[in-house]
Amino acid sequence: AQSVTQLGSHVSVSEGALVLLRCNYSSSVPPYLFWYVQYPNQGLQLLLKYTTGATLVKGINGFEAEFKKSETSFHLTKPSAHMSDAAEYFCAVTYNQGGKLIFGQGTELSVKP
Amino acid sequence: KAGVTQTPRYLIKTRGQQVTLSCSPISGHRSVSWYQQTPGQGLQFLFEYFSETQRNKGNFPGRFSGRQFSNSRSEMNVSTLELGDSALYLCASSGVGTSGLMGETQYFGPGTRLLVL
User: Are the beta carbons of B104 and A45 separated by less than 8 Å?
Assistant: First the structure.
C-alpha cells in the first residue's frame, strides 16, 4: 500500500533560520506530490505540488521542494523562517490528479523569535 | 471565484444521532472529496464524488455516506454517531483554483468541526 512518512512530528527553528521538513513516500510508480499547510482552526492550503517535469518546485510564501526519485523523497524547504510560518505541514501523494490523497502524519513547525 | 465552502462550521451532537454536512465546491469543479481529520488517525480519505457518482471510497463503515447533486454540491451523512466520530471533516474540490497559479489540484474548504458527546 502506498504510504507517506514525515520525519519529525515537531520541528522548531529560530526566525530567519532554514526550514527543512522531510517527506518520504513509498511507491514503485512516480506519484503526484503535494505539500499543504494548515493553520489552527482552518482547512488545508496548498503550498506546492509536483506532477512532472522540473524536480525543483517553487511554491507560495517562499517555500520550495525537490522531488528525488532515487530517494523517494520530497522535502520542503524555506531559506529563512518567519513567525507567520508556524503551522502544521502535511505531505501528500496521489496517483492521479484530483484523486484520493494519502497524507503523512503532519509536522508541526514552531518558529522562535 | 469563491473558494470551497462548508456548512456548518461547528456542530455538537450526541451519540446515536445522525448528522449531515454540506460542501459547495469551487465553481466549475465537478469532483468533491471528503476527508476526516483526527489527532490520532490524521487525515483519512472518506470518499470522492464526480458528476453525482461515487468514484472512490476509503475504509470507513457504512454509517458514513455521501451524495452529490447536479450542481456539484455535496453532502455527507453520518448515522448513529459514535464518540470516535468527533473530528474535523474536510471537503476538497478538484480542478483549477481561483488564482489559476497551481493548475488542476485539490482545494480544501475550512472544514466542519463535529463534536459527539
Answer: no
